[in-house]
Amino acid sequence: MGRRRKEKGAAVSLFPFLSILACVIGVLTLIISALAVAQMDTPEMASVEAVEAAESERQAELKKIAELENKIDEARDSSSDSQKENIDKQNEVRKLKLAVDNAIQENAIPKPAPKIPIVDEDKHKLKLEQLLKEIADTTTEIKEAESEISKKKIPPKEAVVQVRPSGSGAKLKPTFIECTTAGLVLFSGPKPVRVRRADLATNAEYLKILKRIADAKGETIIFLIRDDAVGTYNLARRVALNNYARNGKLPIVGKGQLDLSVFK
pTM for the whole thing? Predict the structure, then answer.
């Protein structure tokens, strides 16, 4: 049996399919390449420096936002304080206005006039004449007294109190010490020496006299006591006894100057 002969035009060609497949593969490759290049510019592919810069910018923005919020809070607080101050000032203004209104109303009300007593003019005139006469007489007396005083230019002499020896100690040689309210007056030297009452126990001049009297024979201290210096005498005598100094006392009557000429 003989072989069949193939019919012309019935063969199938694969070239178009392969071409289309190659084109599709090329297009897909191009798309993949384009996507890879695009992904290189996204945040996921960015460098570490860019991420840190973005984070720092974000922190700076957050800090600015926080500062703005603080300023807003401060502004709110200050506004509330100013509102309170305004309210207080308004209340004070109201009080002052009320006080002014009350004062105006009080001044507007007429006050009753005080009652003036009836004056007896004749009686007052007579009394005034008497007073003027008394003033004239007194002025005349003052002028006469001033005239007499001007004539008597010599001032009155101060009273002198003379001290005389008396008592059992008349044979002893005395050292006189005057007792006054303020202290002592020592007549042991050419000039009197004053000692304050507070310094009696420590004054060197007074202690020197006490030691001399204690060591000497035939000598004694005579305290001349003024009528207002008993306390000073008691204190001075206590110091003298503590230093074994013989002493006596002689009251002085009056405030005059002492005369010790009898003992010189």
Answer: 0.40
